[in-house]
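Quick review question:
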């Protein structure tokens, strides 16, 4: 699929092995700083992009709850949408190199896609990928190429904190 190909191209220089090494370096540094290295050491893992894309598409196909008092679904209500609206925000806690954040961005028109990562090396890797995205991919994500037809598509903010 085109989305997976684009995501894999975005991460061509930032492989799983590179991200795992960055995580290990941060973990070793953390242990050196406090003099401990124990079983609570961090473990790095990546999402399976194909599986995550399937999951995200499935979630976006679910109807939204309406704002009425009993929070039932209303098939006739226009607020019951099957796609992300441009006021939705995607958060990834422990975002690593940002793969899930960019998968969400490539598939939908969230207002913001935000990755939160505590490890400095992984955070810096995500920032580097974000720069590559900005210059090589952001302009490609027009309203017709993403899941939503919102005119706000190119305004989606991708952030790593």
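Suggested answer, residue by residue:
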């Amino acid at each position: 699929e085109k989305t997976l190909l684009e995501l894999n191209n975005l991460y061509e220089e930032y492989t799983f092995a590179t991200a795992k090494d960055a995580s290990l370096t941060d973990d070793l540094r953390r242990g050196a700083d406090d003099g401990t290295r124990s079983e609570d050491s961090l473990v790095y893992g990546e999402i399976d992009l194909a599986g995550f894309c399937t999951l995200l598409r499935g979630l976006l196909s679910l109807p939204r709850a309406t704002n009425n008092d009993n929070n039932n679904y209303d098939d006739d209500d226009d607020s019951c949408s099957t796609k992300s609206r441009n006021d939705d925000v995607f958060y990834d806690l422990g975002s690593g190199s940002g793969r899930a954040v960019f998968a969400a961005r490539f598939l939908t028109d969230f207002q913001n896609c935000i990755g939160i990562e505590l490890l400095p090396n992984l955070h810096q890797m995500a920032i580097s990928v974000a720069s590559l995205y900005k210059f090589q991919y952001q302009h490609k994500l027009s309203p017709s190429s993403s899941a939503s037809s919102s005119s706000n598509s190119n305004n989606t903010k991708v952030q790593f904190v």
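Why it works: The chain has a mean pLDDT of 78. Residues 64 and 121 are 37 Å apart (CA to CA).
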